[in-house]
């Protein structure tokens, strides 16, 4: 009897791992397991045009492995999960001792029917919002000529069905979901569609399905920076009227100046628009570490020197593992958000909503089920993580989601942190204990301690 049970278990394990084969992936010195499954581009036509969904599996290291893997859900929308797998492996190495880790390139990203737009290094194009819109329209036209170029079929709800198909191909009875930023929306949609297949959920930087763009989400961390500077003697001495300098900077646009590319060392005469300034500052506010340089950058920009702000924004950095596949980004956002864009009077809200309004006016929109925008009580434990200074997924979003999910949802906030909590404080250990615990409700969350805001940059005198 024992031999039969062993053979049965071995057979199930072999079936579960039969969908992948050894491969080499950038960022991994060792062989890993790669798989792909065919999926219909249009779910309503299962025998119609097919696309290949690619995924990576890091097998559990111990022989005494557990049956519930970690599925990592990348952000964006538009990041490739496989491309960021090296970062995630380092972060979750303790969990991978006994659990497989699975990274699925969501349709439209990475290797899964990619919808990629070229990234420009031309300084004049980086600061030309109208020119950027023209480039997006050209990219849309190019993407629509691809064999899989019907951009209506790259929504979150359809992508979640691909994710579940990977789960079934690998033979996993239930999975743990770890989503970051937009990946939290994917996780919530998976939980809605397949609650019986979910064991635990971790949501870092929560993007609710019923979220609407709000400029106040960006304005609040900027106002917090101004207030903290005013109450800090060192910052107040160096930047005595920071909030007014910001208002003066916006009022001075458009402004013509010479920009130097911080990486290529090339120069160009450009016109900096109000939208360019808002976009650069928005990008800086994601990270409190980068925000520590914002008082200096604002002061310099007010004087017509925009190079520090450009460098902090990261807009001239080399494309990296976390790059966004822009075609997938707009296919998701235009389908799920375009019809709900509010008319806003505040600077950041108007900047964000108008940008999407212009792009989505011509971008094909997929159908989104009404149930996508709902949240139901969760039978699975859910851990929600928020940064108090997050400009895109602030704590009130997670509070809203936690209330809807019910008693099994727990919410942790780090007041002076920005976008992304997994690398802060003891959060990685907390996630490890939350997923491993028999009773997630009893996991002690008290290790998460407040983190001070990084010290503001001040140039030495003389």
How would you describe the overall organization of this protein?
The chain is 39% helix and 15% strand. The protein has 462 residues and is α/β, with parallel strands linked by helices. A hairpin with an 8-residue loop joins strand 1 and strand 2 (32-40). Helix 14 (326-336) crosses helix 15. The model is unreliable at 1-18 (pLDDT under 50).
How are strands sequenced across the largest beta sheet?
A: 1-2-3-5-4-6-7-10-11
CA radius of gyration is 23 Å
β-strand number: 11
Q: Helical content, roughly?
A: 25-40%
Topology order in helix (H) and strand (E) letters: HEEEEHEHHHEHEHHHEEHHHHHHEHEH
Label the structural class: alpha/beta
Key features of this structure:
disordered N terminus; two-stranded antiparallel sheet; single chain; about 450 residues; globular; nine-stranded mixed sheet; alpha/beta; about 40% helix
Summarize the structure.
The chain is of the alpha/beta class and 462 residues long. The chain has 17 helices and eleven strands.
Layout of secondary structure:
Blueprint: H1 2-17, E1 20-23, E2 32-40, E3 50-58, E4 70-73, H2 85-91, E5 101-104, H3 123-126, H4 129-143, H5 156-170, E6 175-180, H6 182-193, E7 198-204, H7 216-231, H8 233-238, H9 242-251, E8 255-260, E9 267-272, H10 274-284, H11 288-291, H12 294-302, H13 307-313, H14 326-336, H15 347-360, E10 382-387, H16 395-405, E11 409-414, H17 427-436
Parallel strand pairs: 4-5, 4-6, 6-7, 7-10, 10-11
Antiparallel strand pairs: 1-2, 2-3, 3-5, 8-9
Helix pairs in contact: 5-6, 9-12, 10-13, 10-15, 12-13, 14-15
């Amino acid at each position: 009897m024992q031999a039969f049970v062993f053979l049965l278990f071995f057979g199930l394990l072999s079936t579960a791992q039969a969908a992948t084969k050894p491969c080499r992936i950038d960022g991994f010195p060792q062989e890993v397991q790669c798989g792909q499954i065919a999926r219909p581009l249009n779910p309503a036509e299962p025998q119609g045009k097919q696309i290949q969904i690619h995924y990576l599996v890091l097998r559990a290291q111990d022989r005494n492995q557990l049956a519930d893997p970690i599925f990592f859900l990348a952000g964006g929308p538009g990041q490739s999960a496989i491309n960021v797998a090296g970062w995630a492996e380092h972060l979750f190495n303790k969990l991978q001792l006994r659990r497989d880790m699975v990274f699925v390139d969501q349709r439209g990203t990475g290797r899964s029917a990619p919808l990629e737009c070229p990234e420009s290094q031309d300084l004049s194009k980086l600061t030309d919002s109208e020119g950027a819109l023209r480039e997006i329209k050209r990219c849309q036209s190019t993407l629509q000529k691809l064999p899989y170029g019907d951009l209506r079929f790259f929504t979150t709800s359809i992508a979640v069905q691909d994710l579940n198909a990977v789960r079934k191909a690998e033979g996993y009875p239930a999975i743990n979901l770890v989503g970051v930023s937009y990946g939290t929306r994917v996780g919530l949609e998976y939980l809605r569609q397949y609650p019986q297949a979910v064991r635990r959920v971790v949501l870092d930087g929560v993007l609710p399905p019923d979220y609407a763009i709000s400029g106040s989400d960006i304005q609040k961390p900027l106002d917090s920076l101004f207030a903290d500077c005013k109450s800090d003697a060192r910052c107040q001495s160096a930047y005595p009227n920071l909030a007014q300098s910001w208002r003066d900077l916006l009022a001075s646009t458009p402004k013509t100046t010479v920009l130097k590319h911080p990486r290529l060392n090339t120069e160009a005469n450009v016109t900096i628009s109000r939208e360019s300034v808002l976009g650069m500052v928005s990008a800086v506010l994601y990270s409190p570490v980068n925000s520590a340089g914002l008082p200096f950058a604002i002061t310099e920009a007010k004087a017509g020197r925009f190079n520090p702000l450009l460098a902090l924004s990261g807009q001239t950095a080399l494309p990296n593992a976390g790059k966004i596949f822009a075609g997938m980004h707009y296919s998701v956002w235009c389908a799920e958000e375009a019809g709900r864009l509010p008319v806003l009077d505040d600077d950041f809200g108007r900047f964000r909503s108008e940008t999407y309004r212009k792009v989505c006016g011509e971008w094909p929109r997929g159908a989104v089920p009404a149930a996508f925008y709902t949240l139901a009580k969760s039978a699975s434990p859910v851990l929600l993580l928020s940064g108090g200074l997050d400009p895109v997924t602030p704590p009130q979003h997670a509070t809203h989601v936690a209330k809807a999910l019910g008693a099994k949802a727990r919410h942790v906030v780090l007041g002076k942190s920005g976008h992304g909590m997994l690398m802060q404080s003891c959060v990685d250990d907390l996630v490890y204990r939350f997923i491993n615990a028999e009773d997630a409700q009893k996991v002690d969350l008290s290790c998460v301690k407040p983190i001070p805001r990084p010290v503001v940059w001040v140039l030495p005198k003389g």
